[in-house]
Amino acid sequence: MSGFARDEALGRTTPELKLWFDDGERSRMVAALRDHGTVRSEEVRLRRKSGELITALLTASLFRLDDEMCVLSAIRDITARRALENERELLIEKLQHTLATVKALSGIIPICMYCKKIRDDQGYWNLLERFVSEHSSAEFSHGICPDCFQQYYPEEDLAAEDVAAESSETSVSGAAPPASDTTT
Predict the structure, then answer these.
(1) How far apart, in whole angstroms, are the C-alpha atoms of residue 180 and residue 184?
(2) What pLDDT sits at residue 165?
(3) Which domains does the chain have, with CATH numbers?
(4) SS3 label, residue 127
(5) CA 78 to CA 81: how far, in whole Å?
(6) For residue 71, how many other CB atoms are within 10 A of its CB?
(7) Which of 29, 32, 1 lies closest to 17, judged by CA?
């Protein structure tokens, strides 16, 4: 895990190997070992032989061997797990922000069967566009369908309007709007 061969690490201290990313963190672990005799599953930042930083869980215990105090430690690399946890936290924050900004329409919406106005909670009748805009993040773009165009503008030629619309308007993708989407 550290990148050091057994013979490179044996008999050398962690400061000699430059294993600790933060000397203060090493000092806290040494103090905890001195005070309690053990450290269990402490998250630490270490440096591999290559210089790469890793996040690890350290468990260590003091013991006496031939009248000399020694440390037995186990280190588990949790770098990938920590990265996934951080990514998950960012995703949760993003989702919470998105949920906070989303307005949802739900339930039964009273709408006039003739003019299509919608009655709000105070009993006022509002245009469909206003109601939807106030209760969601939707925006409206107005156009006229071919049936309404013929009904309200019978003297106009729809084909001429389509040609004018195609030559003067393009959508975001660069394609002309469909013939049935003549805008006013």
Answers:
(1) 12
(2) 53
(3) 6-80 (3.30.450.20)
(4) coil
(5) 5
(6) 13
(7) 1
- Nearest CA to 127 out of 137, 117, 139 is that of 117
In this prediction, residue 39 carries a pLDDT of 95
pLDDT, tens only, 31-75: 999 999 999 999 999 999 999 999 999 999 999 999 998 889 999
φ, ψ at 75 (rounded to 5°)? -125, 130
Q: What is the separation, in whole angstroms, between the first and last Cα of the chain?
A: 68
Number of H-type helices and E-type strands within the chain = 7, 5
Collapsed DSSP state (helix, strand, coil) of residue 41: strand
Q: Give the number of other Cβ atoms within 10 Å of residue 65's Cβ.
A: 8
Q: Using an 8 Å Cβ cutoff, are 182 and 144 in contact? A: yes
Give the phi and the psi of residue 163 in degrees, each rounded to 5: -65, -45
Half-sphere exposure of 167 (CA within 13 A, CB side): 6
Cα–Cα distance for residue pair 52/48, rounded to 1 Å? 5
Please identify which residue in the block is written with the tokens 């039964």: 108
Contact 144, 158 (CB under 8 A): no
- For the chain, how long is the longest CA-to-CA vector? 108
- Tally the C-alpha atoms within 13 A of residue 93's C-alpha that lie toward its C-beta: 6
Contact predicate 22/45, CB 8 Å:
yes
Q: Rounded to an integer, what is the distance from CA 133 to the centroid of its chain? A: 26
